[in-house]
Amino acid sequence: MTMNLNQLLAADRTLAVVRAESISDAAQLASALGRGGIRTLELTFTTPNVLEHIRRVVETSQDHGVMVGVGTVLTAAQAESALDAGAQFLVTPGLRPEVAKVARERGVPFSLGALTPTEVAQAVDLGSEIVKIFPARHVGPGYLKDLLGPFPELKLLPSGGINEQNAAEFLKAGALAVCCGTSVVPPALVAEGGWDEITERAKKFTASLS
Q1: Is position 132 annotated as part of the catalytic site?
Q2: Subunit arrangement (predicted)?
Q3: What is the pLDDT of residues 66-83, one digit of tens each?
Q4: Residue of 21, 42, 145, 200 with catalytic role
Q5: What is the homologous superfamily of the domain 5-207 according to CATH?
Q6: Contact 151, 125 (CB under 8 A)
């Protein structure tokens, strides 16, 4: 059975966010993460040639089973180009109504970035079923618990500063899943193709979530 984004995040409890100047082979990167138990991959518009990398992951999806999306989406044009390249979900660092509009029209899941209760409410109004709390390191797990008071059904995805030491605390506070970044996918390893080490880092990170 093919799982959607919500189901994958609920099952794996994490999403890998890659910020790198270079990706030697995006398909191998996806495979490495999949072997480590992480089946959602967010590439970002801060990486050169990101659309080519998205296409590469999508074209080889039968080999690794990883869902690929794109983050740091700031404009409608970026959203359209990412979806045309095959991106399966969109993520923004803040409230981007024009990105939300494209995603809704194309029927693709998206997660808008927010921090304050007002921004969270606006993200929900724009159709963001999963709200990314960014930067999470500056507010801590307790902040998520507080947000779930007035928004008990909210699906929260904290991002920024999440590591093996604090990830489980964010989940205990009520997060649907957490974003993992350089602790699992360091830019140098992504650039040089250190796939086995990335797999081991992914396994170690996912083991820390329980």
Answers
A1: yes
A2: Homotrimer.
A3: 999 999 999 999 999 999
A4: 42
A5: Aldolase class I (3.20.20.70)
A6: no
